[in-house]
Amino acid sequence: MQFIPSADLTPFNTFGIAARAEFMARFHSADDLRTALNTPELQGKPRLVLGGGSNILFTRDFPGVVLLNEIPGIRVVHEDDTNVFVKAGAGVVWHQFVLHTVEKGWSGIENMSLIPGKVGAGPMQNIGAYGVEIKDVFHSLEAMRISDGEVITFDREACAFGYRESFFKREGRDRFVIVSVTFRLKKAADVVNTSYGSIQEELKRAGITHPTIKDVSNAVIAIRRSKLPEPFGARQRR
Ligand SMILES: Cc1cc2nc3c(=O)[nH]c(=O)nc-3n(C[C@H](O)[C@H](O)[C@H](O)COP(=O)(O)OP(=O)(O)OC[C@H]3O[C@@H](n4cnc5c(N)ncnc54)[C@H](O)[C@@H]3O)c2cc1C
Predict the structure, then answer these.
(1) Which of 99, 128, 197, 213 could be a cystine partner for 133, CB 3.0 to 4.6 Å?
(2) Which top CATH class is 71-238?
């Protein structure tokens, strides 16, 4: 765990706003996070969990501790003939995770290519794009209860997903830190969702009639890049 007083938040928020946190704790595992939560200097201070900082707008310095989620790791925890269950650390950059699954030929999240942020924030607001939401491919997540440091497993029902919301955005807000998310993906690179007109148009433009998940991911990336000018678009992929 890295503990930094008077930390510059500029590199940690997508809009590049120059704000400072009284303290920043960068954690790389659940144990690290528990240590941060028990650090005497941080007791009683306001806390803010930060992923990629793409859904946060700092309007002033933060008078407390920013907990920066950097938990890494992607691994297969279970598989059967048709599904693969993949667990990702909450600090993995979402788009890097999508690219990994596309490379492996696992379908399910390719339509959500290039959404800014990290894996851990995804279930918080049930991220979605181009006809797919996290809830469609979600299996379970692990979250640390801030009050006692216990890691609790939440299934889909317990997450109570709604449109761009979940338990963690409502009752669970400020009470839990998501540390890992497990997805149920299909072992099929040709099972695609092209229901969105703009994806169909992009595939047609590229002359692709039988798209794979890689084609769909590339189409979504092309659409999103055409909407977001560089360098702002580049900043999203950090
Ligand atoms: C240009 C742009 C395009 C976007 N496009 C889309 C889109 O297509 N679809 C979509 O759904 N969203 C989109 N978003 C929103 C954003 O990408 C998502 O909300 C994303 O999940 C934010 O991830 P983050 O890691 O940056 O979260 P942050 O901004 O760091 O945090 C967001 C919130 O989640 C909390 N949080 C973060 N990590 C955790 C954790 N591990 N445990 C508990 N709480 C946590 C934070 O405290 C904060 O309240 C877009 C945003 C931008 C700027």
Answers:
(1) 128
(2) alpha beta
Reduce the DSSP state of residue 158 to 3 states and report it.
Answer: helix
Q: 30 with 72: CB under 8 angstroms?
A: no
Token digits of residue 74:
């992607």
The predicted structure's pLDDT at residue 234: 47
Q: Which of 47, 62, 115, 144 to mutate to test the pocket of ligand 1 (most atoms within 8 A of CB)?
A: 115
Is 17's C-beta closer than 6 angstroms to any atom of ligand 1?
no
Name the fold adopted by 2-69.
Answer: 3.30.43
CATH 3.30.465.10 range(s) for the chain read 71-238
Locate the ligand 1 atom nearest the alpha carbon of residue 133 and give its number: 11
Task: For the chain, count helices (H), then strands (E).
Answer: 6, 11
Q: What's the confidence (pLDDT) of residue 229?
A: 59
pLDDT at site 112: 98
Percent of the chain topping pLDDT 90: 89
- Bond from prior residue into 231 cis (ω within 30 degrees of 0): yes
Residue 230 has pLDDT above 70, yes or no: no
CB 9 within 8 A of CB 62: yes
Q: Which pLDDT value is given to residue 236?
A: 46
Q: What percent of the chain has pLDDT over 70?
A: 96
118 lines ligand 1 (CB under 6 A): yes
